[in-house]
Specification:
The protein is an alpha+beta fold. It has helices at residues 7-26, 127-133, 162-165, 171-183, 186-189, 219-228, 254-264, 276-279, 283-300, 338-347, 375-387, 403-410, 412-418, and strands spanning 32-35, 46-54, 57-64, 68-71, 73-78, 81-85, 97-103, 106-113, 116-125, 157-160, 193-195, 201-204, 210-212, 232-237, 268-272, 305-309, 327-329, 360-362, 392-394, 427-432, 435-441, 447-453, 459-462, 475-478, 483-485, 491-494, 499-505. Alpha-D-galactopyranose (GLA) binds next to loops.
Length: 509
């Protein structure tokens, strides 16, 4: 190689050498790579800390299993102690102050993020160790819009394991639920999807392919069994490295996972942001990450209903369809409590103009039959979901269902409101002192009219033809009682937290 002399370059090289000598003289012994052992808490699974001098100060990263590399916010290094903040991308999780303190040749680190605490020692590592532990980030795809594929022309109906079983779910239970779906008559009432939520995942093989855990010995055989019953099988994953219950997510394996699901015969995917919230914080990034899986599912060529679960962030209803989604959660998680269900269903279920054939606002799965609400409250739950054209995904144990639960879920006249071909999401036309009147126009010109008593005392609710957008009420039918009402009925008395669901007809206003 011919050495040439560049005077200016020589000066700047000299300056750089002087600067770096100063820095290394001043660099705190905290600078460098610090490694944690396996004893640290699984959440968020802190593996490594790296602190580097930068300019007058320092920059640092904490590498975790859940959230990948997390930048240290406001890192300050002074007298052998570093303080910094850690943010997991969730605005509701406050950023707390962490400390890293030298203790002999170890670094003692304490801090909290969400429910994860660290109070552990790290040992010094090399750059080579750092490379081995470094989290491999992957790029998001460029913006694209997927065309409609014709699935989910009416809101999906089925069952999901989460509300009743959480992650205590296995092959045997799923088969028994499929059996009960048929024997109870629920399949023939329209409930077709049997969805395994979080908790089926095992580890990835050396080829990167996801394997189910030991509770699911053969996913393909399970899909065959479910299909043999005239039902469809759903599964669950996350765009992050970990799902919400801490199982393996799809980060870095999106196309491979979509292909695996298709090969197993999966018909439905719920894709839950979970740990992905640290990677994808802006609406554009969240959208791109859901688009990536939407494209991967399409590329399989299999008809797979795609359920977006990112809790309504970034105005998901305005782009859910464009990323291939057929339903999108609009809210946080439902609980088997009237107040939680009511908050989601009455007040939180997105913008009705986003819903319609092929794409639905999803206020979360049903709790009917789980025991935490009264029969009247469950009737309200079902009425509200039907009026909202919400997906009807049951969440109870179908193997032990009492008659009252079955009659709430199987009522064909109520299901017909939810599944109406126009696909209009109903909405409140009047709200007064705890009384709400909701209207949902139906195919053929009739109107579903729901009355709700949100108070904890009985209430008589008055309604009119005008509420339904009609000139007069020519016919009225009570869909829970399965009988007509006399045409001059204008009041209905509802129990505390109760609901009535009517189908009315007349000339339009
Ligand atoms: C999130 C979702 C729930 C459920 C759990 C599983 O909380 O919102 O519906 O899927 O994760 O861990």
């Amino acid at each position: 190689m011919v050495m040439r002399y560049f005077p200016m370059a020589g000066v700047s090289l000299l300056a750089a050498l002087v600067l770096s000598a100063c820095q290394s003289q001043q660099a705190s012994p905290l600078a460098g790579v610090w490694l944690f052992g396996k004893e640290v808490q699984d959440f968020p699974g802190v593996r490594m800390i790296e602190i580097k001098p930068q300019g007058d100060g320092y920059t640092g990263t904490m590498t975790t299993d859940w959230y990948g590399p997390m930048p240290m916010k406001d890192l300050a290094v002074k007298d052998g102690v570093a303080t910094f903040g850690i943010f997991n991308g969730n605005a509701r999780v406050p950023v707390k102050t962490w400390t890293a303190r030298l203790d002999g040749d170890k670094l003692h680190v304490t801090g909290e993020v969400w429910y994860g605490k660290l109070d552990n020692d790290a040992v010094r590592g090399s750059q080579a160790d750092a490379e081995k532990r470094r989290f491999h980030l992957t790029a998001l795809p460029p913006y694209a819009e997927l065309k409609p594929d014709g699935l989910a022309q009416t809101p999906p109906m089925g069952w999901s394991s989460w509300n009743k079983f959480a992650d205590h779910i296995d092959d045997k239970t799923v088969r028994e639920i499929a059996d009960a779906m048929v024997s109870s008559g629920l399949r023939d009432a329209g409930y077709r999807y049997i969805n395994i939520d979080d908790g089926w995942q095992g580890q990835r093989g050396a080829d990167g392919q996801i394997r189910p855990n030991s509770r699911f010995p053969d996913m393909k055989a399970l899909a065959d069994y479910v299909h043999g019953k005239g039902l469809k099988l759903g599964i669950y994953s996350s765009p992050g490295p970990k799902t919400c219950a801490g199982y393996e997510g799809s980060y870095g394996h999106i196309q491979q996972d979509a292909a695996t699901y298709a090969a197993w015969g999966i018909d439905y995917l719920k894709y839950d942001l979970c740990s992905g919230e640290a990677f994808y914080q802006s609406a554009q990034q969240i959208r791109a990450s859901y688009q990536e899986m939407g494209q991967a599912l399409r590329a399989t060529g299999r008809a797979i209903v795609y359920s977006l679960c990112e809790y309504g962030r970034g105005d998901v209803g305005s782009w859910g369809r464009n990323v291939g989604g057929h339903l999108w959660r609009t809210t946080g998680d439902i609980e088997d409590k009237y107040q939680v269900m009511a908050k989601l269903g009455f007040d939180g279920n997105g913008s009705p103009q986003h819903a319609g054939p092929g794409g639905w606002n999803d206020p979360d799965m049903l709790e009917v039959g789980n025991g935490g609400m009264s029969v009247e409250e469950y009737r309200t739950h079902m009425t509200l979901w039907a009026m909202s054209a919400a997906p009807l995904l049951m969440g109870h144990d179908l193997r032990n269902m009492d008659r009252q639960t079955a009659s709430l879920l199987e009522n064909p006249e109520v299901i017909a409101i939810d599944q109406d071909a126009l696909g209009i999401q109903g909405q409140a036309v009047r709200k007064e002192d705890g009384a709400e009147i909701w209207v949902k126009p139906l195919a053929g010109g009739a109107v579903a009219l729901a009355l709700f008593n949100r108070t904890d005392k009985p209430l008589s609710i008055e309604f009119s033809a005008k509420d339904a957008g009609l000139r007069q009420l020519a016919t009225l039918r009570d869909l829970w009682a399965h009988q007509p009402l006399v045409t001059d009925t204008r009041h209905i008395t509802l129990p505390a937290h109760g609901a009535a669901l009517l189908k009315v007809s007349g000339n339009a206003l």
